[in-house]
Amino acid sequence: MTELAAAKAALKTQAVETPSWAYGNSGTRFKVFAQQGVPRTPFEKLDDAAKVHEFTGVAPTVALHIPWDKVDDYAALAKHAEQRGVKLGAINSNTFQDDDYKLGSICHPEASVRRKAVDHLLECVDIMDATGSTDLKLWFADGTNYPGQDDIRGRQDRLAEGLAEVYERLGDGQRMLLEYKFFEPAFYTTDVPDWGTAYAHCLKLGPKAQVVVDTGHHAPGTNIEFIVATLLREEKLGGFDFNSRFYADDDLMVGAADPFQLFRIMYEVIRGGGFSPEVAFMLDQCHNIEAKIPAIIRSVMNVQEATAKALLVDGDVLAAAQRAGDVLEANAVVMDAYNTDVRPLLREVREEMGLDPDPIAAYRGSGWAERIVAERVGGQQAGWGA
Amino acid sequence: MTELAAAKAALKTQAVETPSWAYGNSGTRFKVFAQQGVPRTPFEKLDDAAKVHEFTGVAPTVALHIPWDKVDDYAALAKHAEQRGVKLGAINSNTFQDDDYKLGSICHPEASVRRKAVDHLLECVDIMDATGSTDLKLWFADGTNYPGQDDIRGRQDRLAEGLAEVYERLGDGQRMLLEYKFFEPAFYTTDVPDWGTAYAHCLKLGPKAQVVVDTGHHAPGTNIEFIVATLLREEKLGGFDFNSRFYADDDLMVGAADPFQLFRIMYEVIRGGGFSPEVAFMLDQCHNIEAKIPAIIRSVMNVQEATAKALLVDGDVLAAAQRAGDVLEANAVVMDAYNTDVRPLLREVREEMGLDPDPIAAYRGSGWAERIVAERVGGQQAGWGA
Amino acid sequence: MTELAAAKAALKTQAVETPSWAYGNSGTRFKVFAQQGVPRTPFEKLDDAAKVHEFTGVAPTVALHIPWDKVDDYAALAKHAEQRGVKLGAINSNTFQDDDYKLGSICHPEASVRRKAVDHLLECVDIMDATGSTDLKLWFADGTNYPGQDDIRGRQDRLAEGLAEVYERLGDGQRMLLEYKFFEPAFYTTDVPDWGTAYAHCLKLGPKAQVVVDTGHHAPGTNIEFIVATLLREEKLGGFDFNSRFYADDDLMVGAADPFQLFRIMYEVIRGGGFSPEVAFMLDQCHNIEAKIPAIIRSVMNVQEATAKALLVDGDVLAAAQRAGDVLEANAVVMDAYNTDVRPLLREVREEMGLDPDPIAAYRGSGWAERIVAERVGGQQAGWGA
Amino acid sequence: MTELAAAKAALKTQAVETPSWAYGNSGTRFKVFAQQGVPRTPFEKLDDAAKVHEFTGVAPTVALHIPWDKVDDYAALAKHAEQRGVKLGAINSNTFQDDDYKLGSICHPEASVRRKAVDHLLECVDIMDATGSTDLKLWFADGTNYPGQDDIRGRQDRLAEGLAEVYERLGDGQRMLLEYKFFEPAFYTTDVPDWGTAYAHCLKLGPKAQVVVDTGHHAPGTNIEFIVATLLREEKLGGFDFNSRFYADDDLMVGAADPFQLFRIMYEVIRGGGFSPEVAFMLDQCHNIEAKIPAIIRSVMNVQEATAKALLVDGDVLAAAQRAGDVLEANAVVMDAYNTDVRPLLREVREEMGLDPDPIAAYRGSGWAERIVAERVGGQQAGWGA
């Protein structure tokens, strides 16, 4: 098989999980601008997610958020998904929107609040059992706003204790993905602020605990691809939350702010053996001002383009230049792949997959946008607080 | 008059304006944690603000936010304030919470939205006429999230045009304070992102337009006191929005994150002749998890402490060390003032002003916190969206 | 003329000035790694610069640095350049490497040091007279390391006074380009730290004073293209110092760290009418570990590629999408240009200019690298301290 | 014993190691400003370091840097130190100033360079045997400047292999302290860029490998005290390199840029049981423009002041407020300690230790500064390259 053929084959196997919440309304602390046609139920979110998969062919699963996507019958939800051609993916916990969580959840100074938070996580594993999801994704908003507010080390002890209880509950084939975040909503300390902290906890928990890299959750200037390479080397990279940023956790469309960085990340993923089902590639974005479904389609395409370019890096030539200490040539090999216009290649891939080569145009031509605006009238639009 | 006496005299004249919105609920994009006893009307906000002034003696005015503080009768509002010992201060415009403003307000691509935004600003001047406020404070959430979304330069032209119309409307003794912000809620471009942009616009508008420095609105590492010194030198410093930050626009209590920075800022204020009624010292903070009124009292005290330390810098000794190029000695003079515990001095100042030397304890002992929790039942708590 | 033809025509007129010092040794504070074949005289630097122009066709001028490039006979130097097909460009002053400048130059607390610094700047204008250079490029390392070390405002006064004297000395057709820098080598205050400060000084000086944007001289996250658009709108953009950075003022090859940013900058240049001889496009880089001449060739090519992509943005379609408030479409128009592989286009441009389509390969095949290694033996290699 | 007495007792046991290189010349990449009286030999550096200990009483050891402090007879050097009242401390390796190290040392693509680097580290352990030093401090300048330049993961493998060989060489009572650094002198990847990477390597190496926190080696906004608390909890905190920064690795005097941060760090040190001989407290600073010996004295005093304040935090009251979720009160307890002027307490401590209460004045009055200027004439001043 030629290299190009290998790249195409790999691209056809790619899977990008889309998050149910990205189909609902989101915004900043200043304002949530509601959009027309936004889903009102988890079922409608799945309908939208299915459209993304229908037109891209590489978005076969949908992450859920509990309690935002709480339903009485998860089997029915899973069946609904399958009928539309997608599956349920990771279960995301939410321990940040209840009044009890004002000072934290799993790290809260009060045992009763910690109990409530851990119980929620255990419930999420129950839901995984019901949906067949294999990944429990944990992001904790826990932290403090002021020096002295709470005991930094005590909070770590509480975190470790809570995670251990949840870890024990995981069944065969289930795992825990621990996300870190530099800051927000806490503004002084965050209890899992960096990959090192997440790694240290996962290491102690065991092989079912792995780290999630959210591309928007780092200090300015952080070299994310280095972290990816390191976590893969440590066999602790569980997955990605993709999005992009110019400033903080902006949650813009992945690839929109720094497409070269996304390419470098995907290169390290492939280099380190992470382009596999063991690593979950998920979107975690906010479409505050742009149309949501096409923005998600565009995001999936951006991941595809970065992946295609990364697949085109000529590894042998690169390795030779690196061994020779030829800085310019080694850099040129990488840039040569990056500067390639891979859109024709991806159009071919899509056609070979029986898809329209232009997913955005195909979606726009499908009438779906108009239909949901017309049909989704009344009810309560989904949003972060819904 | 001794230097200490001069410092005490200056501290007694200090005025820190508190913002009506800080008494209401606030939060992050993830969650607003409501607190008990929060005001439900602009009148109740003034009641709380009056308590801050009652116990600190240096918070005589209250900034309003339109439309959050819209009332039918501003004269009644002003009278209510005066009856409680405070006055109405700056009028803050809000052009970011209407659905029309999704893509901007005064910089919006559509003329009709710009018209609406400018009309709101003109209405704010009407309210200034009614309240006797002299300062129109303008913060624009305008910007873009994605490269290409709008024309950067075209937006500047629209901004200039809109500001010019509002400037013309200002009466004698009224001025326009233009605030800049590094980012948020826009995540790619912000239309007034730095002091340079605000300065350039104010310069063209004329002497009634001045720049506001919000201490949380800068890129990481920015030397804010340099900006303060420069704006004072250019006679374009209109005022401050005080708060503090570890990461982005965290809006923590002023002086909580970097008290040394606050001291350096106040030193440049005094050095540059800015400790005068010409410069407005305002708080602009969010008390998301801490009790609001005592947090504001503490913030006012933090400003007092930084000011007291700045007043204690021995200018003659400092100047001599600077002239001599004695880096360590010059730094030591400044640090000597900073390392002084000025709390005893401020207790004296308060006692001489007829106040309790410990404002926090006095507030706690006053029963106000318990009273508002008991009385403010029912109704709609004030918040950013109220 | 078609759009493509217009783009090609524009690309043929492009001019990127290379700096004499980039051909010499450079390094970090930890170590300067000397390279073989490095020039030992300003004449040899011009020989190397001529090679860059020979193979790229768009690097016709060379910036000098005084005193690094001090010679007895500037007419001879200019003639040497012309014989090799290039011209002398901007004169860069150096007021940071004399022991007297430990605490500053033009802002120094002592008048005698300021006098010396200003005299050096005046001497640079004399050299401009001799070389025919039109641009005096001023970068000041002035600043302080410790709070209190010197008077922030007093230093601004001294700066203004010194610049005014130099400004007066400028002849017809000469101008002053004032560069700003966020930090380094000063670590607390820098006397021209941001575009606002440079702009304010240039505004007061007059039309012959303009601002230089060094792409590595900003706080993390700063939107440089916004500054470019703003300075063009204010008619105060004098030129660029191109390089790239991941962290601080890394001085890597332009386009190496964030090629998308370089594209956005060039888009605003073109949009704002800055793609003209009025704006100087200069490189200012350090090739600490990579071969210098090919690195500079690559840098010139990177600027060309970014420019080509920016020229390909379909302005009409973009403007329509912006007017319609179609965020995704407007962004897509820009990304469509960025994602285009412009290397074939640039190969055509080069062939039409009578050049080898692959400048790097042509340089490597020319034998120049081997020749300078063989010939430049003995003597003192050029470097920042030379 | 009262709390104050306990604090005084603790302060008397404090030990801050000063680095031999801080007594020599240093600078930025732009210029090293030489100072008069700078040591010319390791012996003279020890003479200066002894003065710092003589006047502060808490700087009993001196870190060496190899090869900067290479001597023929380390026993003689150790004896020289002891005769002046100090001891030799950590041995710092240097694998960044030989031409072979242009592309790295222990991570270099070529095995021969890695061999040379590891041999140097092994030689440093030999020197430890000779000097009786227990700590081998490792900072690697290794990294890359350009994407693709080398294989990120391959470099980690090489790093692990090299460290393992050195680890095996460590004798009883000897340990390895691994330092991380965000960036510089490498500008794209750094091979040990964060605490997580250092921690992961130390964990695999074993109990004799521990992490060093250099307070200037973090991304903007990083919460260093969180890292301190976490490393202490993991029993992997080996020591500190103290200095301070406003921007990058500015290497200013510790406590000069953000004294509140230094206090918070010392609070977590004490809280986590790190105020013990197991954790090394070292300075690592550059005194580029200020007089070196008094700057180091001042730095030691700054550490003392931060420690004193941290010791004064009322742990019981704090814990109660934290348990009660009283954010303002908990913060107030911490701020109360920070706002205390501890200089009188430290003057008492010094007097009880038989020292002058004002170390700076005592040093200035000692005539040492004048003496070294007069005596240290001729020879080669020590510097980073010496």
Automatic annotation (TrEMBL), chains A, B, C, D:
The broad enzyme category this protein falls into is: isomerase
InterPro entries reported in the protein's UniProt record: L-rhamnose_isomerase (IPR050337), Rhamnose_iso-rel (IPR013457), Xyl_isomerase-like_sf (IPR036237), Xyl_isomerase-like_TIM-brl (IPR013022)
Q: Among the record's GO biological process terms, what is one? A: rhamnose catabolic process
Give UniProt keywords alphabetically.
Isomerase, Manganese, Metal-binding
Task: State which Enzyme Commission number(s) the record gives.
Answer: 5.3.1.-, 5.3.1.14
Residue intervals of the Xylose isomerase-like TIM barrel domain: 49-247
The protein's name is L-rhamnose isomerase/sugar isomerase
